Amino acid sequence: MKHNTDNPLSSSSRTASRSASSIAEFRRLHEEEGLLFLGNAWDAASAAALEKAGFAAIGTTSYGIAQASGMRDGEEIPFDRLAAIVRDIAARVNIPVSADIEAGYASKHADIVDNALRVADAGAAGLNIEDSPKDRHGLRDVSEQARLLALLRNALDARGFGGFFVNARTDTYLMPGVSDPFEETLLRVRAYADGGADGIFVPGLSADAEIAAVASASPLPLNVMSLPGLTSVSRLQKLGVRRFSFGNAFSDLALAFLARSAKRLLRDQDTQSLYAARSE
């Protein structure tokens, strides 16, 4: 019988070394010329498919994870489960993984910081954090969110995760009641940069002129999300976008395919369709 002689400290050191390498690579992808086209995964299998296709980095999709778990988006899934999925994905692929932790899965800043450290410990190289808390309507006060970002930055650095990429998401274009989303976005970009964020994510930002203006004014790399009519990497790169992701669109497509295939199997009473078009 072969006994396991691995030193736990050695294993821990290897994990820490891999995490540091992943963090450095993820930061490099944001700093080099061009646009980072980020693949969005919801489990280890989807992450592996994206890596095999050639994506350089992966971001989790909270919506896709919730759907795959039979739950609704909006921090309904227990954070322990989310952290475990992030850990599974990070262990399965050899490219950087960014974790979508929505608004932090907590109300108190200390608890949000703890959750951020948990996904860093799980192997993530970065995270997305929103300014639209789930326990109340509207956006967090801009100064409150900037303070939270500063706390995240300090805690990650103190834990040994220097360079960990904090992508500050603002929901100015998604939240009803924002009188001037463009001006509010510019205000928040500057405040979040001062708070220690590494990137700014503005889902819903879609007009070319406004994308270009935010990209030009932002001291942080601008991340936008795919929408119908907002799909071209080359177009967005020309507008100054530095990171492009597709959120839950890929997981929606996969789940829709499963639903159509299930209906076809039952309708045809034949499994031939399961073996068609497997070669692509």
Automatic annotation (TrEMBL):
Gene3D superfamilies: Phosphoenolpyruvate-binding domains. InterPro entries: ICL/PEPM (IPR039556), Pyrv/PenolPyrv_kinase-like_dom (IPR015813), Pyrv_kinase-like_dom_sf (IPR040442). CDD domains: ICL_PEPM. SUPFAM superfamilies: Phosphoenolpyruvate/pyruvate domain. This is Carboxyvinyl-carboxyphosphonate phosphorylmutase. It comes from Saccharibacillus endophyticus.
